Amino acid sequence: MYLFSGDFFMDFSQLLNQVLGAAQKGGKAVADSPLNSFGGGALTGALASMLLKKKNTKKLVKAGSVAALGFLAYKGYQNWKQNRQQDELPQSAFQPAGLIGENHSRVILQTMIAAAASDGLIDDAERAAIERESGSDAETATWLQAEYAQPASIKQIAASVGSDEALAAETYLAARLVCADLSRKEIVFLSRLSQALNLDDQLVESLEKQLELA
């Protein structure tokens, strides 16, 4: 399933799966070289490398697929809902298919890039690596370059999430995975993001706990 983006179609779910899978398989070795070719190719390697530059990459490596990320978010959400007299979202809401799934993956990728940029993680060398390694996947490279040049703002991310509780939880979790070291700028970014997504403080705590258990 492809989602229209600008003047072309992209398979965001596949890209997110490749990036998370590359992070899981590559570990520290991926961070050593943004040009390391594996999984979905050098382009995917460049993106995974950028997200793995932090010292504390264990949590990001644990989320090795879109399904794994969705499951972690669902467990955090489920634990938060246990003591509340409210209807609970089904697990399927955290693993949507079709166009909804593509939109989820697009927003999550945008959020991860924005989270990386919040602490100055994206540098000119990595932007150049994406451009050099675009290969036959020029459409993906074009989209990534645009995101790197102007990462989505918290306001834009919140607007894309809307009232989707499942996507809000996954979006925050994805940002937290990237903001592994919790520098001052990262803490500010995560705090502003959780507020913009209207996430309950206890839900945020529950999502954080899932990362500790992962």
Q: Can you give a write-up of this model?
A:
By secondary structure, this protein is an all-alpha fold. The chain has one domain (63-213). Helices cover 66% and strands 3% of the residues. It has helices spanning 12-32, 42-51, 58-62, 66-81, 98-117, 124-132, 138-149, 154-161, 165-178, 184-196, 201-213, and strands at residues 3-5, 8-10. It has a two-stranded antiparallel sheet. Helix 4 (66-81) packs across helix 11 (201-213), helix 5 (98-117) packs antiparallel against helix 8 and helix 9 (165-178) crosses helix 11. The longest helix is centred in the N-terminal third of the chain and has 21 residues, at 12-32.
Outline the secondary-structure elements.
Blueprint: E1 3-5, E2 8-10, H1 12-32, H2 42-51, H3 58-62, H4 66-81, H5 98-117, H6 124-132, H7 138-149, H8 154-161, H9 165-178, H10 184-196, H11 201-213
Antiparallel strand pairs: 1-2
Helix pairs in contact: 1-2, 1-5, 2-6, 4-9, 4-11, 5-8, 5-9, 8-10, 9-11
InterPro entries: TerB-like, YebE
Pfam family, one: DUF533
Organism: Neisseria flavescens NRL30031/H210
Question: What descriptive keywords fit this protein?
Answer:
TerB-like; two-stranded antiparallel ribbon; YebE; mainly alpha; 3-hydroxyisobutyrate dehydrogenase; 11 helices; 214 residues; globular
